[in-house]
Amino acid sequence: MDICGRKGDKTGYSRNFFAMHPYRTQTCGQLRLADQGKTARLSGWVHRKRDHGQLLFIDLRDHYGITQCVIDISSPLFAAVDAQRLENVVTVTGAVVRRSDDTINPKLSTGEVELKIEGIELLGAAETLPFPINVDADYPEEMRLKYRFLDLRREAVHNNIVLRAGVIASLRRRMLQQGFTEFQTPILTASSPEGARDYLVPSRLHPGKFYALPQAPQQFKQLLMVAGFDRYFQIAPCFRDEASRADRSPGEFYQLDFEMSFVTQEDVFAAIEPVLAGVFEEFSDGRTVAKPPFPRIAYDEALSKYGSDKPDLRNPIVMQDATEIFAGSGFKLFAGMIAKDPAVRVWAIPAPSGGNRAFCDRMNGWAQDQGQPGLGYIFYRAEGGAGPIANNIGPERSERLRAQLGLGDNDAVFFVAGQPKTFRTFAGQARQKLGKELGVARDGVFEFCWVVDFPMYERDEETNQIVFSHNPFSMPQGGLETLENEDPLRIKAFQYDIVCNGVELSSGAIRNHRPDVMIKAFAIAGYSAAEVEARFGGLLDAFRYGAPPHGGSAPGIDRIVMLLADTPNLREITAFPLNQQAQDLMMGAPAEVAPDRLKELHIRVALPPPAGKAGG
């Protein structure tokens, strides 16, 4: 549809009207008061229509913004403009005019002007929409993902994807400024024990064998260090066949992967801290960003003070061990637990300004809703501690506890008891709940910290075997001597996490670059030397030809953008995510493959029996 009257002199339009670019002279976010009196041509989507009787208004939207366009009922084009449906793609031409003072829209960058429509052309007609684009409302996720190309037109989601692009560009620029060189590592590779299932790709040329999509470029980036490239990075796609979580999509995610040679742990921190702080400052939108250097918190300390290895430092509440206060006390429940089992501890969780019975009882009820037996407490008045526990342990112990925690009048303290490994997670949740309920946790800030000194190994509760706690390629603190002489469960590794506002952005480590140390480290975790050679022979061989000490990390881009966009779900900051069942509803993936293609790949599909039917 072409409704610009382009049949020559009858139109009365100037020659310049038709000499313009066929689609636009400006974007829908560009026109300003200085453009008043000019003729402009805009292209975009019909965002809104408003019929005011004598005047019809169209809000025209493109990637850059919105411009209000107007036409008078007396215009011969009025019917054609009125016929446009929402989300039609049109080109509009006309004069830029100043809005009257009472119609200026300060919420739009173009809000002081409007375009008086003198020509309109339909470029792409829109059918009836499955959901409105111009309404900020929640729609079912399945619908949003099926019509993701429409969902991405919505302002909030569109802005999130633009933010993501800006963050990636900023990270890349800052890494280059830090002296890193960008490399690309293979997508088709071999399986690696990264802690999740691999996505496998069958080989047509090698029947019965499979490639794996990389869970991370771990071995390749270490090999780049062995090859003499001193500082590597890439915006790396990673693939893990795992269940969906709010902070990780099934399928793929992206990370700022980097590695450095001849570095200590502190060198790694010093390199990446200004990059992270800088990108958060750039996109903080007025929020406060912690300045480097970021605090270093030992893993064991993080668990005991915050109940988590991902501490949220916006919350100033710090837990303390109060076991000695209760040992041999009149509070028989805790005292008896302590006497019976030396592994039992009592943790105290301060609650500033929480010192009233109604609040304490409400927290106790919350704990029971979480499946706990309750949450004991003491609240303090000028005359001392109050409540059943205070009455049982007596004033002397109550005051010792007050002094230890630095509590004042109208403050309270809550308690959890048992073996820390059983109650630690709940204690951390209680700390976070108190911080929010009492209003002491700060909003509008980004607080970073490093969690360091992770255990090298842990015991698998199901198999009772010693397994790697984190990255198996980490250097144990103390090296080979520690591996040969120390209890494995007491060995610490040069492993570290960077955490922001309680969200783990990445794990990293100083790598184990010595073959003898690596073989011993894997032996403790149950791998034979032959198996290590078979699975990681490429890396081991490289190390045998002279490997530098090296280390790195890989902050998650999805999680960085989630924090900056202030959204808890990564599907809001990913252009084309899978749903929670790892399906692409828009493209129809995963899909069945034709039998001849399976035959070519030497694959026979063995489907599980239907639900409720046993196999024969």
Main features:
616 residues, eight-stranded mixed beta sheet, five-stranded mixed barrel, 18 helices, 30% helix
Explain the layout of strands and helices.
Layout: E1 2-3, H1 15-19, E2 39-51, E3 55-62, E4 65-72, H2 78-82, E5 89-98, E6 113-124, H3 141-146, H4 148-151, H5 155-177, E7 181-182, E8 200-202, E9 210-212, H6 218-226, E10 231-240, E11 251-261, H7 265-282, E12 288-289, E13 296-298, H8 299-306, E14 320-321, H9 323-326, H10 332-340, E15 345-351, H11 357-369, E16 376-381, E17 384-386, H12 388-405, E18 412-418, H13 420-437, E19 445-446, E20 448-452, E21 457-459, E22 466-468, H14 479-485, E23 495-500, E24 503-510, H15 515-524, H16 529-543, E25 550-553, H17 557-565, H18 595-600
Parallel strand pairs: 4-6, 7-10, 12-19, 13-20
Antiparallel strand pairs: 1-6, 2-3, 2-5, 3-4, 5-6, 8-9, 10-11, 11-25, 14-15, 15-18, 16-17, 16-18, 20-23, 21-22, 23-24, 24-25
How would you describe the overall organization of this protein?
The chain is of the alpha+beta class and 616 residues long. It is built from 18 helices and 25 strands. Strands 7-10-11-25-24-23-20-13 form an 8-stranded mixed beta sheet. A 5-stranded mixed barrel has the order 2-3-4-6-5. The protein has a 5-stranded antiparallel beta sheet with strand order 14-15-18-16-17, sandwiched between helices. Strand 8 (200-202) and strand 9 (210-212) form a beta hairpin. Helix 5 packs across helix 17 and helix 15 packs antiparallel against helix 16. The longest helix has 23 residues, at 155-177. It is globular, with a radius of gyration of 31 Å. The chain starts with a strand and ends in a 16-residue tail after the last helix. Residues 5-13 have low confidence and may be disordered.
